[in-house]
Amino acid sequence: MSELTGKVALITGAGQGVGQGIALALAERGVKIAVTGRTLSKLEKTCELIAARGGEALPLVCDVKAADALAHCVAQVVERFGGIQILVNNAQEVCLGSLEQLSDETLEAGWQSGPMATFRLMKLCYPHLKGDGCIVNLASSAAKRWDMAGYGGYAAVKEAIRSLSRAAACEWGQEGIRTNVILPHAESPGLAWWMKKNPEEAQAFLDGIPQRRVGQCEQDIGRFVVQLCSDGSRYVNGQSIGLDGGQALLG
């Protein structure tokens, strides 16, 4: 039996990609999973995969940009499972484009789905996380790119998540809540779309990864999150950790 058996995780954007990989990896260790996202069919697919491994999952349609929807989601999770010990803020609308081209609406969507959703969910889950809670927020190494052209908006919202996470780690650490950030490269539908649309840049991107490959959602990202939520990482708090095969130099 895993030390995580019986714990409850709320994971946003878990219908596919990295969120799904994290959900599957945690479920493999006995964690009950609240699978949230915008598309019910995708959420149900993740739940089916978890059930096939003997796990328990609850699909919850939720627009992370809506404060009321987030509050309702947390209430449903607590009602079904009795609490929340792990929060993974993964959902994010990507706001790419040059500063001149980037619209207010696109940047606002990135802000609301990223930093604001992360901020709101951390506060909503805070009472339930006290004692042995673990928050894992997702950011990006976009702000560490050699060329920031076209990535300013996306990098800005992801850096805001890092700042909020550091504050949570400092403010809530004494209450038994650990907050960390991962910056992953993974074989998600979003990355696959980007690589297909930008083949030359994608090749340069791959060439810049010392391991010369993109990570796998469950095996490389999900399993690391399992470690981060386990007792072996109980003194890891307030850190930003690159899961990118060694590409970014975080300073």
TrEMBL record:
CDD domains assigned: SDR_c (cd05233)
SUPFAM superfamilies: NAD(P)-binding Rossmann-fold domains
Signal peptide: none
Keyword Oxidoreductase attributed: yes
Residues forming coiled coils: none
UniProt keyword terms in alphabetical order: Oxidoreductase
Membership in a protein family: Belongs to the short-chain dehydrogenases/reductases (SDR) family.
Name of the protein this chain belongs to: SDR family oxidoreductase
Organism: Ferrimonas pelagia
